[in-house]
Amino acid sequence: MNLRNMKQSETTEQIKLFKWAEINEQFVPELKLLHHVPNEGKRTNGTVLKAAGLKTGVPDIVLPVPRRGFHGLYIELKFGSGKVSKSQKEFMKLLAMQNYKTQVAYGAEEAREIIRWYLSKADNFNLINCEEAPKTFNHCEGFEEEWTPCKTCEFHNPQERSEKTCL
């Protein structure tokens, strides 16, 4: 899919976000769980979809990974002057009451930053470090920090490399 030929929109921003996740899921396995809830837009079969469980206000993006004291992450992605609807605010409030992290992101880059923050187990570590880590034959060379999400990182198994700790 060539994004250059598409008009920039919420959809193209979402495609950019999921391309980023796909590229990095080998090194950050939790990204394999990131998914979109196709809940927006007008449909001719809306009555059937609502009967089958379609709900108004459900955020666009879900990452069902417990982290930072939350059960999972929900992101409502907006683009340009897009506004959060009343039903979206209400649904996100209900999610927050169930201990889910909810956020609104204006564009793919802001959504990536939210996900990077959410998945980082240590406040002193930004996931962008894993994304930009040197890799040889799809094997992460790693960082000397307290924790890393990367399963292929040479620092991931502290028993094998006791002189270094994982991010």
UniProtKB/TrEMBL annotation:
Q: Please indicate which superkingdom the organism of origin belongs to.
A: Bacteria
Q: Entry's SMART domains?
A: VRR_NUC
Kinase found in the keyword field: no
Q: Which UniProt keywords apply?
A: Hydrolase, Nuclease
Q: Where is the VRR-NUC domain?
A: 8-109
TM region positions: none
Keyword Acetylation on this protein? no
Q: Name its co-factor(s).
A: Mg(2+)
InterPro entries found in the cross-reference section: tRNA_endonuc-like_dom_sf, VRR_NUC
Q: Quote the protein name from its UniProt record.
A: VRR-NUC domain-containing protein
Q: What is the species of this protein?
A: Blautia parvula
